[in-house]
User: Which sequence fits this backbone?
């Protein structure tokens, strides 16, 4: 039976038509609306009987499976707007609109198979994405298909299968500063307009948003502690109903909220910075610690771009602003601070994350530990 053949009926419950060799489309009615589902031609009679039985027993009829990937993905990303942080949602939205929809948008969700997922990988790479970014696109597609599976629009999430595995992405090797380089940096930063920001970020192993989001009310000078309770982020107009603006956001997990003990050199830097801010009349107990010359919060992207230039002008080895955090962690590990404590300082959600990021540094530490043990047992420690 082919596309122009007569429809097959079962006691008026539904009809079916063969749309291609071996594949048929069944039509039925749900809540007064005509719906359809696809199945193998040799399964038509069984499916029609199941529909008739469902009507007789007043059971829910099958959910139609003719939704297209594009329409479903765009609806899904809009639903996620309220559940995700601005930056995360923006990344998901970009992957949906720029890669998933162009590659798979016209397909039916129910037709997506492993080879289609691999095609998405190939086409995303052809658009200029690096392997790590292709893996990010894959993750978003898998989340979409997982929701479609929960909605009973598909039987299986093929993005989860090994044969649909995204390309491997080599880990970016971290090359943090040595102790000598860190000390040199502290000398060079003296007198810079962002001296206190750089010192605080290094001394507390902060993320960029955490450092820029610090408020004076978070700093407890008598007890020498700082409360890390949120981040300052730029929320783009496209991804925010409140327009393009800087936004203070709560952390993703409770693990990111912490009270940190301040090293002495950080206390001194913050105290000197506070005195300068009072003179400039930028200081407010509830205001941000680090501000521009006009007293407004610092623009995160400006800090990211300015930091490497600061190092270049002083002849120091290139580092990103985020590498201050990595340098802090590596210095602690090099001095024998236990991994679990470093993980706590970094506010990682699990020890495995710390191990994954700094595993190559731990190898060196383990060699040093072996040398210490050798010295102890040989009586030469």
Assistant:
């Amino acid at each position: 039976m082919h596309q122009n053949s007569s429809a097959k009926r079962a006691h008026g419950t539904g009809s079916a038509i063969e749309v291609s060799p071996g594949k048929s489309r069944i039509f039925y009615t749900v809540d007064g609306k005509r719906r359809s589902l696809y199945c193998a031609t040799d399964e038509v009679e069984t499916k029609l009987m199941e529909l008739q039985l469902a009507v007789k027993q007043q059971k829910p009829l099958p959910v139609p499976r003719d939704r297209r990937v594009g329409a479903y993905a765009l609806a899904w990303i809009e639903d996620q707007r309220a559940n995700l942080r601005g930056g995360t949602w923006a990344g998901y939205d970009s992957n949906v609109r720029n890669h998933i929809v162009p590659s798979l948008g016209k397909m039916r969700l129910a037709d997506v198979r492993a080879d289609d997922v691999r095609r998405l990988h190939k086409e995303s790479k052809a658009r200029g994405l690096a392997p790590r970014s292709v893996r990010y696109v894959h993750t978003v597609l898998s989340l979409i298909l997982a929701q479609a599976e929960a909605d009973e629009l598909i039987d299986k999430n093929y993005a989860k299968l090994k044969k649909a595995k995204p390309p491997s992405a080599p880990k970016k090797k971290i090359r943090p500063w040595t102790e000598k380089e860190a000390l040199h940096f502290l000398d060079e930063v003296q007198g810079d307009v962002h001296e206190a920001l750089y010192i605080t970020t290094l001394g507390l192993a902060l993320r960029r948003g955490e450092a820029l989001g610090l408020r004076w009310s978070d700093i407890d000078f008598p007890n020498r502690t700082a409360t890390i309770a949120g981040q300052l982020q730029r929320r783009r107009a496209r991804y925010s109903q409140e327009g393009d603006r800087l936004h203070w956001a709560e952390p993703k997990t409770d693990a990111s909220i912490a009270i940190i003990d301040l090293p002495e050199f950080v206390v001194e830097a913050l105290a000197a910075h506070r005195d300068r801010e009072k003179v400039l009349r930028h200081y407010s107990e509830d205001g941000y610690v680090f501000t521009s010359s006009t007293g407004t919060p610092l623009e995160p992207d400006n800090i990211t771009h300015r930091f490497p230039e600061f190092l270049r002008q002083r002849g120091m080895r290139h580092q990103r602003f985020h590498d201050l955090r990595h340098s802090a962690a590596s210095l602690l590990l090099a001095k024998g601070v236990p991994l679990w404590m470093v993980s706590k300082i970094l506010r990682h959600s699990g020890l495995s994350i710390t191990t994954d990021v700094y595993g190559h540094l731990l190898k060196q530490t383990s060699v040093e530990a072996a040398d210490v043990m050798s010295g102890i047992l040989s009586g030469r420690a």
About this structure: The first helix runs from residue 44 to 56. Residues 218 and 273 are 15 Å apart (CA to CA). Confidence is low (pLDDT under 50) at residues 1-12. The chain is about 45% helix and 10% strand.
